[in-house]
Amino acid sequence: FELAQFEIGKTISSGASSIVKRIIRKERKQYAMKEISNERKMREYVAETQILSELRHPCIIRIFDYNLGNETQAPYIIEAFEKMSLDDAIKKKEVSRDEINLISVEIVLGMRFIHKKGFLHRDLKPLNILLSKKKHVRICDFGLSKPDDPDQSISQTSGVGTMHFMAPEILEGK
Fold first, then answer.
1. Per the residue annotation, which of 65, 87, 88, 123 is the catalytic one?
2. In terms of Cα–Cα distance, which of 129, 124, 121 is closest to 90?
3. Is residue 148 among the annotated active site residues?
């Protein structure tokens, strides 16, 4: 993709290392552009793009392009655009019991695929689960992800992620 093909829209979200903006291609198709705003996080960005390029699954966000940046352009990833996170849907009470059941199954399917491919997400939370218009799951934000190393066991996830969503055994160091 060439960025000149897009109209840059409003900021969708921002975090410690990136800003996500809605972008619209000339044929009116919408995407999300994740721009890296913290150069110290470049290693995580490179790892995220490499991991996402290996993960093709209906329950995982799809990347279409990425750029390592230059003097005039910050590094970015162009991803599929979804309007709502699971966090938004829960807060707005926009999911039925049947949809919650389907969402749960799709999260498990996506995570199982990630693990079978040999990766750990390490920051799974409602904000990192996007929902399509039909409430299908797209797991996103692989910035803290890494290849699984069975020899490291618990130390791979210790102290990584969003504390509020960590499993108790991780918090206890078990």
1. 123
2. 129
3. no
